[in-house]
Design brief:
Blueprint: H1 2-47, H2 55-67, H3 71-83, H4 92-103, H5 108-120, H6 129-141, H7 145-157, H8 166-179, H9 183-194, H10 202-215, H11 221-232, H12 241-251, H13 259-274, H14 283-297, H15 303-317
Helix pairs in contact: 1-2, 2-3, 3-4, 4-5, 5-6, 6-7, 7-8, 8-9, 9-10, 9-11, 10-11, 11-12, 12-13, 13-14, 13-15, 14-15
């Protein structure tokens, strides 16, 4: 009898425990589902899908979902504070707060935003290269293609006074390109051109450089310069100064203080100084390009380019 009573008590206790566990799971699932519904509603209102576009109302639903711990909502609220959207006052500290909460749930884009804020010191936040790199690396490990591309540039350019590692840079850029990160196309083209972190391959250089300029020409003046070099140097067959000049002109048609634009301007100056390809000798025009190259070169870290510009300007004073 006593054994029976003990058994009955155990059964009752076990059922009670199962009930508590089950109820807890149901509550958690319901909370999660509510947060997902809020996020879907916010996206629909924000994009005008079935509703009038209303960014402020969308943010209200994102905040409701964020309060329930939804990582996508936390990220979206962070974006609102970072960019000052939906009449929210721009506040980078609040943006950091929401990104960090989302990152705790391994939200790749939140890690990326954290990396950008700490790398650039946005909103008065202290620059912290170590934090920035770690956040970009975590975002990359979670499959964020843009962050993978950033890590590639980090190793390639030695950002934050780090030591360049071209092999790692190449591997990250190649991985980013496979993910679909367009920003890596241009860098891969340059690396194949220079044999940095990989074997020199002019055909592969051309392929990636062309992908870069087709995708986003306004950000790829460097790609235009290297495409010009491929044809000017005859790396793809016979030299083609006409085609090369087309690319150099495209390179210098965009605003921006850049070493590769300086190199394009210098090259165009040489074209007119020596009368290369399809242009006649014109020392006045060559001097114009050299002076523009000097302005661009003041922001260029390449001693080689700056030295060439100085020699070109000196030569232009006494043309032979």
């Amino acid at each position: 009898m006593m054994l029976c009573r003990f058994y009955n008590k155990c059964v009752v206790l076990l059922l009670a425990l199962l009930c508590v566990t089950s109820c807890s799971n149901i509550e958690t699932l319901t909370q999660h589902q509510r947060s997902v519904n809020y996020v879907n509603l916010a996206r629909s209102i924000s994009q005008g899908i079935g509703y009038n576009v209303d960014k402020e109302k969308a943010l209200i639903y994102y905040e409701k979902a964020a309060a329930l711990g939804n990582s996508d909502a936390l990220y979206s609220v962070g974006i609102a504070y970072e960019e000052g959207l939906a009449n929210v006052k721009q506040d980078y500290n609040k943006a950091l707060y929401y990104y960090e909460l989302a990152a705790l749930q391994n939200h790749a884009k939140a890690y990326k935003q954290l990396g950008e804020i700490y790398f650039s010191g946005l909103g008065g936040i202290d620059v912290d290269c170590k934090k920035a790199f770690d956040y970009f690396k975590k975002a990359s490990d979670l499959g964020n293609p843009d962050s993978t591309s950033v890590i590639g540039s980090w190793y390639c350019d030695g950002l934050c006074k780090s030591t360049p590692d071209y092999k790692k840079a190449f591997d990250y850029h190649l991985k980013a390109a496979e993910y679909g990160a367009r920003r890596s196309f241009s860098d891969l083209g340059k690396m194949y051109y220079n044999g940095s972190g990989c074997d020199t391959d002019y055909e592969e250089a051309k392929r990636y450089l062309e992908l870069a300029v087709v995708d986003n020409p306004c950000l790829t003046y460097g790609a235009y310069f290297y495409l010009g070099q491929l044809y000017a140097q005859g790396f793809l067959g016979e030299k083609n100064f006409h085609k090369a000049m087309e690319y150099f002109l495209k390179s210098v048609s965009y605003d921006g203080l850049n070493c590769e634009i300086a190199a394009s301007l210098l090259t165009l100056g040489d074209y007119y100084y020596y009368g290369l390809g399809v242009v006649k000798v014109d020392h006045t025009k060559s001097l114009e390009y050299y002076k523009k190259a000097q302005v661009e070169g003041s922001h260029c870290r390449s001693d080689h380019i700056n030295s060439r510009i100085e020699k070109a300007l000196a030569r232009c004073k006494n043309p032979s």
